[in-house]
Each structure stands twice: as structure tokens, then as C-alpha cells.
Design a protein that fits this description.
binds zinc ion; 6 helices; four-stranded mixed β-sheet; 16 strands; OB fold (Dihydrolipoamide Acetyltransferase, E2P); alpha+beta
């Protein structure tokens, strides 16, 4: 037997073994939810949902990201203790050995539901792009309706009756007893005035009309308002500017959760 044949036989065996392993993992019982995009089956296999990204509970540098707990709670409600059916895409595992999958509970498409309800952002990593257009469409709806993490919150300076974006630099100069977090409705009801520096907008503009200037980070694929503290940290070579939110989103960028562009 020549060398090539041996190699071929070995590759064929590896492929079949791999396929059998995958077939087995296509259904499973959920034992534990780690965060809004990752869970563990009773077998111990970790599953990372494809095409979405939820705020992390244990970010290496940021700690708990805003809405991390809510996102985890939402995924728990959808799948905890239930049987899931898993669908795979082109790449089956990530570098951490997690199985990359689309998950279904009955007729509910879990990845899509997390985006639709506003508890996860779209994050497309080629080659796993099968449902990216559906996810982007659902994300637009969630943003426009301000569901989940897209809900706008502001900080009111009670002593002056002025409201700010949570990222406004002036907030540092206000005593904490005068600062109150509020939603748009409460601000309208109380007739508070917008800050001249951060120029907060109470309702999100329709995506097509939301003109302004935004900056994207080519490596994280997030985009920001120009005055966002995170935007200022983007290195020159990773910067990409957009004039509309839609332009950024069409190119696969997701809005920053701090400045909510
Ligand atoms: Zn301000
Ligand atoms: Zn930002």
C-alpha cells in the first residue's frame, strides 16, 4: 500500500468519526446558561450561538457589561431545562472548543429571538453567515422599538433640570446625589432640558434619516458617536467613518452600547 492510500484512508476515517460526533450533538438538554449567547448541555458540551453577541458578565477588561444579566436571564427563560435542536453552519467549533450552533426550542429560533427581543446584537463572523440578513432585519426592528438593551436611558441633573447621555463628560462634575437615571418618558413628563454638550436625543431617529457622524472600529465591528469615550480609543488605522447609522449597520457594524448611536 502506498503512502497516499494510507493518508487517504486516514482522512476518510477522521471525516466519518467527525460526522458521527456531530450527529450525536445535534440534540441536547440544556443544563446551564453562561450568558446571553453561550450555554452548556447536560453532556458538558458548551454551545456558542452563531451570529449574535450578548453583553458579557465577565469581560476581561470591562467587568460586567450593561445588560449582561438581563441577556442571560432572557436566554434562561427561553431554553433552561429544555431540549434544544442544534443546526450547524460551515465552521463547527471555535478556538475554545465550543460548538457553534443555531438553536431551536420547538418552533422558536433562539438566536433570532434573542436579537428580536433586543437582548443580543448581531455579530457576523464568516464563514458562518447563513442567517445574517434575518438577524440584521430583526435587529433594526429591536432598535427602532427600543427593546431590551436598545432602550435609551439618560442621566438627569436634578439641581439644574438638565438631562445628559450616560457618556457625557460633564457628569463627572455633578454631585452624585443630584444625578438620577431616567427613561425618555419620565424626562418628557418632567420637561427637563437637554444638555448643550452631549446633545441627547430622546427618541432614536429612523435609521435612514439619522444623519450625523459616526466612527466604526474595523476590529471590533462596533460604531460610535464621535464623542463616545470608546470612540476616542480607536487607533487611527482601525477607524472608519459613516454619515448615517444605516450605512454602518449595512456594513455589518453594530451600535455601541455606551453611546447608543
Ligand atoms: Zn451632557
Ligand atoms: Zn460608543
Amino acid at each position: 500500500m502506498d503512502k497516499r492510500r494510507i493518508i487517504f484512508a486516514f482522512i476518510a476515517f477522521a471525516l466519518v468519526a467527525g460526522l458521527i460526533a456531530l450527529q450525536k450533538s445535534l440534540k441536547g438538554d440544556v443544563a446551564r446558561v453562561i450568558d446571553g449567547d453561550t450555554f452548556v448541555l447536560k453532556t458538558g458540551q458548551h454551545i456558542r450561538l452563531i451570529g449574535i453577541n450578548a453583553p458579557e458578565l465577565h469581560h476581561p477588561t470591562l467587568g460586567e457589561e450593561p445588560y449582561g444579566r438581563e441577556a442571560k436571564g432572557h436566554l434562561e427563560k427561553l431554553i433552561m431545562g429544555k431540549k434544544v435542536r442544534l443546526e450547524l453552519d460551515v465552521q463547527t467549533h471555535d478556538k475554545y472548543g465550543r460548538l457553534l450552533a443555531y438553536a431551536y426550542v420547538g418552533k422558536i429560533f433562539v438566536n433570532a429571538k434573542m436579537v428580536e427581543d433586543g437582548y443580543a446584537q448581531v455579530m457576523t463572523i464568516p464563514p458562518n453567515v447563513k442567517y445574517q440578513h434575518l438577524f440584521l432585519k430583526l435587529q433594526r426592528e429591536a432598535m427602532e422599538k427600543e427593546r431590551g438593551l436598545w432602550e435609551r436611558r439618560f442621566v438627569v441633573d436634578k439641581s439644574k433640570g438638565i438631562y445628559h447621555l450616560p457618556s457625557c463628560p460633564l457628569l463627572k462634575t455633578i454631585a452624585s446625589k443630584n444625578k438620577v437615571e431616567m427613561r425618555a418618558k419620565e424626562i418628557t413628563d418632567n420637561k427637563y432640558k437637554p444638555c448643550d454638550v452631549c446633545k441627547p436625543i430622546l427618541s432614536s431617529p429612523p435609521l435612514e434619516k439619522g444623519k450625523g457622524e459616526y466612527v466604526g472600529n474595523k476590529s471590533s465591528k462596533k460604531f460610535h458617536r464621535l464623542d463616545c469615550p470608546w470612540a476616542k480609543k480607536i487607533s487611527e488605522k482601525n477607524r472608519l467613518y459613516f454619515t448615517t447609522r444605516e450605512e454602518a449597520i449595512k456594513q455589518g457594524y453594530t451600535p455601541c452600547l455606551v453611546c447608543k448611536p
